Amino acid sequence: MQQHIPRHSRYGIVPPYILYSIANRGTRTQRQHALRALQVALSTHPTRQAAGRRRSIQRTQSPTPRRTIYDAHHSGRLPGKIVRKEGQAIGSDSATNEAYDGLGWSYRLYQQKFGRNSIDNQGQTLKATVHYSSDYNNAFWDERSKRVVFGDGDGDLFRRFTVAIEVIGHELTHGITAYEADLDYKGQSGALNESISDVFGSLIKQFSRGQTADQADWLIGEGLFTHKVQGVALRSLKAPGTAYNDPILGQDPQPATMDGYIEIEDDDGGVHTNSGIPNHAFYLVATALGGYAWEKAGHIWYKAMTDSAMGPQTTFKDFANLTLKQAERLQGDEGKEREAVQQAWEAVKVLPHKHTSNEESAAD
Ligand SMILES: [Zn+2]
């Protein structure tokens, strides 16, 4: 199998356009913090993937998580010192406890609902580093060391990044996507990569709260902003483009349909922007089918993202077709799944309108 070397090894939750906006419009200190957080958003260390995909259906041991949390003590060096290992009692540090719990919920959703045993499906240890750097306004997946890294935020615009469990789930999912699909972090395939992380990040939050699709907030990064920022989160799957509108951070630029698809060079070709389109498709499927989103919509998406047809250049349309294939396999008694998936991708204009409703009965 051909080896693919991704250009990116770090995947930040805060997109570069927000950090550029802060750097341009903020105070001197805000600018310094934004530039520090940008270093990750722009990091381009090449890494080498493990050769090919190793799909293991082995279940060697009882499937429980193995977590190790490290503390960088405000330095920019990884991994930091071990502060909590699997099974150790809760301590006094909130970031450590939130990272530990968030990795636990992430593990349990993937294991209990999709039968996946950790990142590599072979029980790999889940690693996180907290208190990375100082006044650090980002969290990221580090593909080289296979760990999630959290800043504390500067307390001025951003709070500590472990407060949002969907951020933990988002970053961990980058590890799974790199392992399974190897999507190029550029253009549509990159936006699909981002969207998969948002979708499963949100599902992990919903799972941890026992929420149905109707009850969920569908936000990514809820609670990260301080009261100074006019916004509720970094992104919204329910209503892309509405998460924030702030004099310093700028306005949420996400489109909900292909009509708003943007062709740009920045942000690796708009990976954090155009991800709004498949994000919204997932939201539409989940709410159309109702109940817990991970049961049907999440199942369809998981099967699609781990399909062997996924590759570096997978487009939105390719992915839409994979979800249709999986929806057909899942098809329940009423056959609603395929219809919901078809309609969602049509609604966001990734797939063309195929059919007019034949249920237009004589209305009175
Ligand atoms: Zn991401």
From TrEMBL:
Major site of localization recorded for this protein: secreted
InterPro entries: Metalloprotease_M4, Peptidase_M4, Peptidase_M4/M1_CTD_sf, Peptidase_M4_C_domain, Peptidase_M4_domain
Domain Peptidase M4: 67-177
Subcellular location: Secreted
Highest taxon listed in the record's lineage: Bacteria
Active site: 171, 272 (proton donor)
UniProt cofactor(s): Zn(2+)
Gene3D superfamilies reported for this sequence: 3.10.170.10, Neutral Protease Domain 2
GO cellular component, one term: extracellular region
Enzyme class: hydrolase
GO biological process terms, semicolon-separated: proteolysis
Residue ranges occupied by any Peptidase M4 C-terminal domain in the UniProt entry: 181-350
EC number from the UniProt entry: 3.4.24.-
Keywords: Hydrolase, Metal-binding, Metalloprotease, Protease, Secreted, Zinc
Annotated segments matching region Disordered: 44-68
GO molecular function, a single term: metalloendopeptidase activity
PANTHER family: NEUTRAL METALLOPROTEINASE, PTHR43579
Family: Belongs to the peptidase M4 family.
Function (record text): Extracellular zinc metalloprotease.
Designated name of the protein: Neutral metalloproteinase
Native source species: Ktedonospora formicarum
